[in-house]
Amino acid sequence: DVKVTQSSRYLVKRTGEKVFLECVQDMDHENMFWYRQDPGLGLRLIYFSYDVKMKEKGDIPEGYSVSREKKERFSLILESASTNQTSMYLCASSFPRDYLYFGPGTRLTVL
Amino acid sequence: AQRVTQPEKLLSVFKGAPVELKCNYSYSGSPELFWYVQYSRQRLQLLLRHISRESIKGFTADLNKGETSFHLKKPFAQEEDSAMYYCALSERDDKIIFGKGTRLHILP
After folding, report:
1. Of A44, A105, A42, which Cα lies nearest the Cα of B85?
2. Which of B56, B90, B96, B102 to mutate to test the interface with A (most CBs of A within 10 A)?
3. Of the candidates B78, B83, B96, which has an alpha carbon nearest to the alpha carbon of residue B3?
């Protein structure tokens, strides 16, 4: 079974804090993705990576950055958390041109 | 502009009735389309993809390039079909874009 794991299920941070969300996959997938999921807005792509040290902006990259130093790990960084970044964050991975395997999600609350 | 449109936020259907979840897309190349499902308290997972042309849990979806649609259908709804359904499009750079989702509620 493919496993995509995320470091936390729930996270509460304060405005202005730096936040790290970690994602690890064990299937040697080239592609990794970060989405945020909000009611009524669906899943919106923040960033994706198609190889180590490679990244591409998604539709809503503002306020976020990513890091992929190893193939199995893709980190999402909120440099200075704001309340409008309160959301469910989903990590996913895949082979090229294949379907996504999702992690369980991290529900982030920024106070 | 929205590349994947799911016009219904909520669809309520009686058990045993047919289900159709609509999805329209905007893409100039050869589209690769998917349906994903999220059951209550479970992670998002693939339901089906158009290149497989198979039926999963009784659901089918046909790609209609003329109408740029990929509607999800099931002839007889079951209570366990209640979930959130997302249509997704894979663009040529492997970026995968989702619609806003449709919550399917099966009424007893």
Report:
1. A42
2. B96
3. B96
Give the residue among A88, A87, A82, A108 at the shortest CA–CA distance from B43: A88
Identify each DSSP E strand in chain A by its residue range. Answer: 4-6, 10-13, 19-25, 31-38, 42-51, 54-57, 64-70, 73-78, 87-94, 101-102, 106-110
Residue A2's pLDDT is 64
* A42/B94 Cβ within 8 A: no
Query: Nearest by CB to A102, which of B9, B34, B43?
Result: B43
Select the residue of B32, B45, B100 nearest A42 (Cβ to Cβ): B100
CA nearest neighbour of A2 among A88, A66, A95, A76: A95
pLDDT in tens, chain A (111 residues): 669 999 999 999 999 999 999 999 999 999 999 999 999 899 999 999 999 989 999 999 999 999 999 999 999 999 999 999 999 999 999 998 889 999 999 999 999
pLDDT, averaged across chain B: 92
Q: Are A13 and A106 in contact (CB under 8 A)?
A: no
Give the number of other CB atoms < 10 A from CB of residue B16: 13
What CA–CA distance (Å, rounded) separates A10 from A74?
Answer: 18
